[in-house]
Amino acid sequence: MSKISKKTFLEEAEQGFDLRTARAEAARCLLCHDGPCSTGCPAGTDPAKFIRSLRFGNIKGAAETIRENNILGGCCANLCPYDRMCEEACSRTGIDKPIEIGRLQRFIVEQEQALGMNILKVPAGAKKGKVACVGAGPASLACAAQLAMEGAEVTIYEALPGPGGMLSFGIIPARMPQRMVDFDIEQVKKLGVKFVFNTQVGKDITFDKLKADYDAVFVGIGLWSAKLPDVPGKDLKGVVGAVDFLKQARISGGKSDGAQDVLIIGGGDVTMDCAAAAKLMGAKKVTIVYRRSIEEAPANMRELAYIQEMGISMTCEMAPAEILGDGGKVVGMRFESRDGYSRLKLKADKVVFAIGQALEDAGTGLPLTDKGLIAPCEEGCECGCTSVKGVFAAGDAVNGGLTVVEAVAHGKEAAASILTYLAGGKGGAK
User: Fold this and answer.
1) Is residue 429 in a domain?
2) Between the chain's N and C termini, which has fewer beta carbons within 10 Å?
3) pLDDT in tens, 19-47
4) Is the domain of 198 the same as that of 246?
5) Same domain membership, residue 352 and residue 293
6) Which of 113, 19, 138 is nearest to 63 (CA)?
């Protein structure tokens, strides 16, 4: 049995740097004049700057560079696909390997927490306006923090019992430690942002009331509705969507649901999260089945390596054909190969579909695109405006689901548009 398979559901997948290893890694930086790594961060964080600060012992300066640009700097340090963003641009790549920017960022944020730094300040004076944010996920948190730093009064409404959205309820603790989510969110609260939990817009409070009570409304509700393929047996007990599976795993603290033979359908990072969660919750056998080749799988290779170390196998180029049941419960599943020749039948008492999420009806009444997402004010526009005056939206509900750091970036862009609107500028339809 591998060492990693003995970990618990709440245990982190890997340890971060300590001061010695962090400074050694920072010392590898070439201190490039143009800092190519700094062009690869959607949130505008400057890795070259915080690495330089760390290299010369200025940890506070390094923490300021991260926190002032990315309110979720700790979460992104754990989740960002650095290998195709800032690390991919690192000049060191042509010599040996890129600087481990993500782990350095994680170390700096952990030092920010350990040393009790208080970096962000609330501006004094009268508030610039009242803004409601719907949803407490990455885009809303970034938008709210940016608005608060500019002097707006912000309240976030969340249907779940706590903040963080997918960060708290849709990603396993091994990849996203709750302690880091809580620390990042604490920085938002320190800015004066208020939270209202267990309040679903469209049910517990109407969207029209929000529009009436606030000067502007931001919608960042995420994608919480599972997509299930149209295959026979999808209504059997034991067939679930990835979001519901991960949310229940987080709420229960990783308590076993009794499943022993689990099939995870998909090939992305969410698939890997589901597979790891099932294994850590006590499943005897976990198998991933993906309809395309391993080369086409969108999952980060680090996440794929993580589940492989746990002994989880992955079968590729097999598409779902039928879910088999007995007495209303799932007992197995049939697959057909991509080439139309081979067939596969696997035993299962739980099937988790991680093939994408869709937008739930949040009672906003906002126009949707043909993909079922919130429509921007103009096609291709990323300013955060919608076709409804005073209503803004960003994040997964608009782009269909990208990375956390991109949600942060889009939340900040929406905040800029809201500030312009509060000052008398354009804000959607007139």
Assistant:
1) no
2) C
3) 999 999 999 999 998 889 988 889 999 99
4) no
5) yes
6) 113
Half-sphere exposure of residue 181: CA atoms within 13 angstroms, side-chain side? 22
- Rounded CA-CA distance 353/357 in Å is 10
| C-alpha dihedral, 381 to 387 to 390 to 392, nearest 10° | -40
- DSSP H helices, 100-177, are 101-114, 138-149, 166-169
Domain count of the fold of the chain: 3
Contact at 8 Å (CB) between 102 and 90?
no
Q: Is 192 part of a structural domain of the chain?
A: yes
Does residue 246 sit in the same domain as residue 344?
Answer: yes
Residue 367 near residue 347, CB atoms below 8 Å: no
Q: Does the reported pTM lie above 0.85?
A: yes
Q: What is the pLDDT of residue 427?
A: 66
Task: Break the chain down into helix, strand, coil percent, rounded to 5.
Answer: 35, 15, 45
Range of the domain at 108: 15-114
* CATH classification at residue 315: 3.50.50.60
Provide the b/e sequence for 206-226 (b: ≥16 CB within 10 Å): ebeebbeebbbbbbbbbbbbb
Average pLDDT over residues 48-54: 96
Check whether residue 102 and residue 218 sit in a common domain.
Answer: no
Domain match, 237 and 351 both: yes
Indicate left, alpha or beta for 313 from its phi (over 0: left) and psi (-120 to 50: alpha): beta
Q: Give domain status of residue 5, yes or no.
A: no
**C-alpha distances in Å from residue 160, one per residue of 134, 168, 221, 222:** 11, 10, 11, 12
